[in-house]
């Protein structure tokens, strides 16, 4: 039986590699990141609908075939950006909350507010693209979002610790979340001062939870 030489093996490997795929995992990850960042910039600047796959490839300085190797369409890019946005927001919130003593429940709620408000103001342009873009309505996107589930757990754990009395943690978290969103949007529209939002939300959340009033 004829043995396959090393050169023939390498040739076969190259033959099955998809056109446009850079060799090596590090180069592949780097290229994918460049494409995602190019899509993010264009979606924010031009809007999702107005941006084309050709423009994304050009902005990333790569061949169109390379783009299609990683993403079949704009919807896939939008989903990746949506997941990345949610992860970044949650990382900021968790860092704030985890810095509080485990038994400081009001402090942990306040940390959630500060982390969420800071992230919203800093990334609201991307938020508008990934949340209000094509796909499911906003109400569906937020129904099971990490940020809402995390707040629900905080409220539920605080109830178990007798920090407050809440019968329905999920309902309370949803009401508080929409209060947070509305408060931030008012500041973005100029009807409230940005620097006052976290404090006002902290007062409101305390009243909703029935503590510190």
TrEMBL record:
Gene Ontology molecular function terms on file: DNA-binding transcription factor activity; transcription cis-regulatory region binding
HTH tetR-type domain span: 29-89
Keywords for the protein's UniProt record, in alphabetical order: Coiled coil, DNA-binding, Transcription, Transcription regulation
Keyword match Transcription regulation: yes
Comp. bias intervals (Basic and acidic residues): 1-10
Region (Disordered): 1-27
Protein name: Transcriptional regulator, TetR family
Highest classification ranks of the organism: Bacteria, Pseudomonadati, Thermodesulfobacteriota, Desulfobulbia, Desulfobulbales
């Amino acid at each position: 039986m004829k043995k396959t030489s090393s050169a023939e093996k390498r040739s076969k490997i190259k033959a099955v590699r998809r056109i446009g795929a850079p060799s090596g995992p590090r180069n592949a990850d780097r290229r994918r990141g460049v494409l995602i960042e190019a899509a993010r910039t264009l979606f924010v600047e031009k809007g999702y609908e107005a941006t084309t796959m050709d423009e994304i490839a050009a902005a990333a300085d790569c061949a169109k075939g390379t783009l299609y190797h990683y993403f079949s369409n704009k919807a896939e890019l939008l989903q990746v950006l949506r997941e990345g946005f949610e992860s970044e927001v949650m990382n900021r919130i968790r860092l704030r909350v985890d810095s509080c003593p485990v038994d400081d429940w009001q402090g942990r709620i306040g940390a959630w507010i500060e982390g969420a408000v800071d992230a919203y103001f800093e990334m609201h342009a991307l938020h508008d693209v990934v949340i209000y873009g094509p796909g499911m309505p906003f109400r569906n996107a937020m129904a099971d979002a990490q940020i809402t589930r995390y707040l629900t757990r905080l409220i539920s754990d605080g109830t178990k610790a007798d920090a407050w009395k809440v019968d329905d943690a999920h309902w309370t978290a949803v009401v508080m979340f929409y209060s947070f969103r509305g408060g931030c949007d008012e500041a973005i529209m100029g009807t409230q001062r940005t620097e006052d939002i976290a404090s006002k939300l902290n007062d409101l959340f305390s009243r909703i939870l029935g503590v510190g009033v």
